[in-house]
Amino acid sequence: MRIAVLAGGVGGARFVRGVRQEVSRNRQGASVDVIVNTGDDWWLAGLRITPDLDSMLYTLSGQNDEQRGWGRLGESERVSAELKAYGVTPEWFTLGDLDLGTHIARSAWLREGLTPSEVVHRLQERWELGVTLHPATDQQVDTHVVVADPAAREGSGERELHFQEWWTRHRASIPVLRFHQHGLHRAIPSAGALDALLDADVVLVAPSNPVVSIGTILSIPGMAQAVAASPGTIVGVSPIIAGSAVRGMAEACLAAIGVEPDAAAVARHYGARSRVLLPATGARGLLDGWLLDEEDAGAVEGLEAEGIAARAVPLWMRDLERAAELARDAIDFAIELRGAS
Ligand code: FO1
Predict the structure, then answer these.
(1) Ligand 1 mean position to 142 CA, how many Å?
(2) CATH of the domain at 115
């Protein structure tokens, strides 16, 4: 069995760790490819920073700082203090000493001409991750956030800032007028992402941010079509439990695109794969199935009526065991739906 997972950062990494545990325990012979969001990436101090891929790499190799949710265990910040003193990095963004090892290695290989995919595959060789990581695209599609700014230059009334500043400095507290992925128009899905999707038996949509993580992955020209054309059965996991995001600031991002922070609303936003959303293009929704938490079980019937098979299971991944159980529920659901189709 070949499993492809669409995922963003922290929540996605926890989920993928559960998928790996479930596969190694109960699905011998299955392989897992993870298609990771690259919209949070940016250049800082001359280094290419790729937060979601690093959350995956560190979580799956056991190096991540579970308390902070990002960065490395046993981290120190001596070099970062120097970078801040020189004004090369802002006060609100810290590059730990160990973390810098990854960024320097990545940036060195990029300068040698390796693609981001080749860089990720080389980085992960250091550990036996048990899954294969792929950037969603090898082109740069850095997410920027457009916010209202009455004092903006040329009187536009708007200002644009990089996603990392909005997210890390402002904790997503400034209302968003729209998101803008620079370079999206010339991006294409990475070869690894396409290969995984077009050969998958099961496609899992991790409980990551539906807008800036999963949304950014799907907005890469050709990606939504590849997902739709996948022979795999597609099951998503709600990132919202009883109206609140499990981690991160999904509510702020959903508000920006006019979607309620609600498990069923997110499923409707992704759409039913069995339904044509745009007759003109024949574009369909994403989902065959949707897992929501038991607290949201009341939404199952409505979603089923709209062509999205739904199931209420415990979604809270409080530890590895619970993440593995959630992964088992998602994979079992996909197999059941596959058998039914
Ligand atoms: N998040 C913070 O809140 N503060 C930081 O200083 C910070 C530094 C940082 C450095 C490297 C990296 O890969 C991630 C980092 N993050 C930091 C987390 C990052 O902003 C988020 O994990 C993702 O962008 C959200 O998906």
Answers:
(1) 14
(2) 3.40.50.10680
